[in-house]
Amino acid sequence: MGYGAVLRDRCPAIKWLVNAQKTVWYPILFAVLCIISGSSNHTVYLPIIYILCSFVIFSVLFTDDNKVFLVPMLMIYYSLGMDNTDANPGGVTGDSLLSSFKLGAFEKIIACGVVVVVIFAIRLIADGSLSTGFKQNKLGAIGIFALDIAFLLNGLLNPDYPTTTLLYGAILAISFTFFYLSCSCMLHDSKDFIPYACKAMVCTAYVALFQFLIKAWRLHASGDLFFFNAQMEIDRLDREALSLAWGLPTMIAAVFVLGVPAAMYLARNCKFSPISYFSASAFVIGTILINTRSAMIVGSVVFIFCLVICCFNNKDHPRNPIYGRIFFAILIFTSIYMLSTIPNISGVIEKVLHFLRLEDYDNNARIVLWEKGMEDFSNFPIFGAGFDTGSNIKNNVFSSMYHCILIQLLGSTGIVGALAFLIHVVTVGIIFFKKFSINKLILLLIPLMIVGMSLVDNFYFYPNFQIFYCVFIVLAESCTFPYKDEVGVSAVNNETKPERSSAAQSQEQNGIDTV
What we know:
Strand content: under 5%
Radius of gyration: 24 Å
Order of helices and strands: HHHHHHHHHHHEEHHHHHHHHHHH
Number of strands: 2
Strand order of the largest sheet: 1-2
Helix content: 55-70%
């Protein structure tokens, strides 16, 4: 990588591009390309994926700031487009996922992914980031490694133990470890890491939101967006038709609602916060449009909570609480006005309950899945029944998907998995309470939201959500144990703290002002 640094210093064009990647315009450009790619077929998404991969290769060769790798890590998965719009994409079955791509396109996508991961790993090794990252105080690694062990041992005592059970456990262990360690290593040779990561997360949420809106508009234009009742009134959205190549509606909404804490972090800590308040509101409204219960409930609670936090005084940005109070007042008055114009409150409540689909069979189906998970746990209490075997057998991402993180851990990994998760929770709790700060709380809301939504779904066990989960745990941990390089520059906030002479230290101890 040394030749790349020399060429960067000698070529103004390369240096300009390197500096441009460190600004907010790089994640915005990446997001725009992902929106176009994810809303198109292979004639568009394949060339764009090649372009996005070339961005990564350019960064590997020339960048002097590792934080730029966060952009492709968070977003590139959502560049997946779809060729067969009649397929049921996003993970109901492996066959339907592959049928949404043109023959040969999926193999090219996999090849691009392998190239990107390999050259990224080479970069971290070559510039010393990997070795430096391992030397840092990484408390969170204890919990991650405990989960790795539990995942690898899943279903060990099950007499029907298939090889695929070990494979799925290994995939989970590798993905958690890779995302956690790679993000930890990025802190080496990085400046202003946290605000850049939040901007990239907001752009990622916008990718999901705009792809959803484009798909909804196309369905509306063809008359396929809504179901109508006997009175020809709109009854509900055709949610299954809103699937994208990379996910079902529940996954789509979960992605853009995770942008709420990132936007609110920026609202509290950046110079101009109204854009961030608008973004957070748009993400919550998006969950209502797509009608996903877990994202609506969790996202709304987190949004209100963060908004209240942002109304308190902030010594670093004294104007931002004013914006927060104005926005909060507008929200309250708008809600009061809307409620005052409703003539029949009881009818509204009935419509809301219908909108949340509380009467659907889907709720009973969840209970059946949870009962099967607890049955598997009772049969195999130590290591569980395994991810790819058990009483809930169906062709899915892995066979035993119980749609609840707690039951999934018990049913698939047993007591060992539950203890590993408890260790992980304890380590994250230490990270949270040690050197507590409001900013750290907001960052940890993203992992907490993933766990919360996983109480009725499986987001915690999907690699694309593990990226968000691990990145923001690392960011919170960097606030607790800030990494300093050899000259005392913080990787988190770019503060320089030069070494003080022994004489100055002695004067400070004696109460003498050395300023």
